[in-house]
Amino acid sequence: MTDFKKMFPSGSWCVDESVGYLLKRSQIKLAKAVDVALAAHDITHAQGSIVLMLHSGHYSTAADLARELYIDSASITRMLDRLEKRGLIVRVPCSDDRRVINLKLSDEGNKLADQLPHLYGTVLSRNFVDFSAEEVALLKTLLRKFLATEAPAESGKQEAK
């Protein structure tokens, strides 16, 4: 069994070596690079993520998107408003439940969504230029493992030193 106190010692913690910090910095680096690439399409990486998620067919409401992207409902609403104003999405009332508004890509949104995988692939290729295919595969495997791991619930109490 892994001794997590040895793996992540609290007494010698350094922000620059924190796994969480490194993951966040990596996410920010990629988001900035995608923002630059998407500037020609006049959308942000966050809006591009929404377009791709709607295109996948796995998400259809603002609540779905907010949960998956971990974004508050007000921010999702603002982003959806911008995408709707640009003509990339359409809000469609649900026929079964009038409280629910489904989101669909417009024809223009679908055209953009078809272009995004190539754009994202180009950004990833540039940012992983010094990695081998095996290293990228290992990174993806480790990230999937991390995402699949159920962390034990915190007790809310600080451990006594």
Topology:
Blueprint: H1 4-7, H2 19-38, H3 45-56, H4 62-69, H5 73-85, E1 89-93, E2 101-105, H6 107-127, H7 133-148
Antiparallel strand pairs: 1-2
Helix pairs in contact: 2-6, 3-6, 4-5
Précis, in short:
The chain is mostly helical and 161 residues long. The chain has seven helices and two strands, in the order αααααββαα. A hairpin with a 7-residue loop joins β1 (89-93) and β2 (101-105).
Number of strands: 2
Percentage beta strand: 5-15%
CATH class identity of the domain at 37-148: Mainly Alpha
CATH topology of the domain at 37-148: Arc Repressor Mutant, subunit A
Q: Which shape, going by the Cα principal axes?
A: globular
In angstroms, what separates the terminal alpha carbons?
Answer: 22 Å
Stretches with pLDDT under 50, minimum 5 residues: none
Order of helices and strands: HHHHHEEHH
CATH H level, superfamily name of the domain at 37-148: Winged helix-like DNA-binding domain superfamily/Winged helix DNA-binding domain
Could you give the order of strands across the largest sheet?
1-2
Mean pLDDT: 89
Rg over C-alpha atoms, rounded to the nearest angstrom: 20 Å
What is the CATH architecture term of the domain at 37-148? Orthogonal Bundle
**Largest sheet properties:** 2 strands, antiparallel
What would you note in describing this structure?
The chain has 161 residues and is mainly α. The protein has a domain at 37-148: Orthogonal Bundle (Arc Repressor Mutant, subunit A), CATH 1.10.10. The chain has helices at 4-7, 19-38, 45-56, 62-69, 73-85, 107-127, 133-148, and strands at 89-93, 101-105. It has a two-stranded antiparallel sheet. A hairpin with a 7-residue loop joins strand 1 (89-93) and strand 2 (101-105). Helix 2 packs across helix 6 and helix 3 (45-56) crosses helix 6 (107-127).
